[in-house]
Design goal:
The chain is α/β, with parallel strands linked by helices. Helix content is 48%, strand content 8%. It has helices spanning 6-27, 43-52, 63-79, 91-100, 102-121, 130-150, 164-171, 173-179, 188-201, 218-232, 255-266, 268-273, 287-305, 326-329, 331-337, 347-354, 366-369, 399-404, and strands spanning 183-186, 208-212, 238-242, 309-311, 342-346, 380-386, 424-430. α10 (218-232) links the parallel β2 (208-212) and β3 (238-242). The radius of gyration is 22 Å and the shape is globular.
Length: 433
Amino acid sequence: MSVNNEEKENEGKSIIEKLAKLKYELQHNRPLTPLEDDGHPDIGPYNKELEQRGNPVWHDVPWLYSECYLYRRIETFFALSKHWKGYDVFARQKMSTFKSSRPAVLELAARYRELANEAESGKGADGKSPEEIEQAEKLLFSEMCEICLWGNATDLSLLTSLTYEDIQKLQGSEARKASQSNILVNDLDAAFAVMQKARKDKKDGERRVDIVLDNSGFELFVDLILAGYLLSTGLATTIVLHPKRLPWFVSDVTPKDFSDLLNCMVDPQAFYTSADDSGKTFPPLSKSEVSDVQFLFEQWSNFHQDGRLIMRPHPFWTTQGCYWRLPHLAPELFEDLKESELVLFKGDLNYRKLTNDAQWDTTTPFTTAIGPMGPKSGIRVLAFRTCKADTVVGLQAGEDEKLRQLPGGGGDQARKWAWSGKWAVVSFSDGKA
């Protein structure tokens, strides 16, 4: 990025120096230092907790706290500047990954358009009994959810070395079919049942679904596919999306990522054929491919304008602790989530935060591990997670041991099978039951 303002350039250099200092401290196991006050109310709690933890060094501090601290500290470098306020250091990576997802985007756009038209015209129901319609809907719901689940495989913080071709392999329908047997816990039927019941019981009422977002780019695209599907079929009347307030964990969605994604889809031909950073150009899209992507853009824009697809950031999502703290730290957000029929938490970090990132026995029920977000909380929680860290619950007895014996599974040393994103869990807790 070229910078023509001398003051801005000097500020940019100073930010680079701060990043280098942070990297040095981490590599050389220095103590974590208090965050500089950038005017946001979360700085006090971050620093208070740092003090309560005894001002630890980088290699001896709980992982969850140190990761959140790292991204929050990076944000202060930009927030305290004059010219770089609000700059997302990860934005270019996010958009280039979405560009390299072209084959999967086109495949899904075509499939989705067909389904949305069918849902809105009622054509798919011709001559079918109510039972057959329900079965077909259930299968489609599962398909949409699985697309949404495996979209998380392109998490930028972990997949920095993937080539364009690798990303494509991860995202196509064949890859998703092959991965079906890798879903270790699958509570989709229970989630579908409560949503379908809500549609019957509240036929003319509000039926809201919340999605606590994870990664931007292709994963946000598949989240919007699911959102559009739920609205088109009437399984939901409103979708509330929860992005992060600031650039977070490399590829997490900020409100600007939502508008950036829609802007790419206004003219997919220009976006998908323009040269990439290395100068490589791409073949043009066909007329029908352009039309499929523009159909999505128009539908999602209309949902957004009608107030049926809402972005609602909240500072709680970038605090340093787990979601066990939600009722106490953000009671108004906790009460608001109770208004939803279903709250979908996407990705590994949200799962770790739900389960307190604790060393649970893997057979611990999900409903137990999520503590105050579980039974009788008033919140229905559905977690979509491709496993990229040790914490995992809700497995059958012996499952963890079996997976550890696989090549690269970790054996007695570590739960390495849970680090790769190859295995997934879809876990549900009905806090309204």
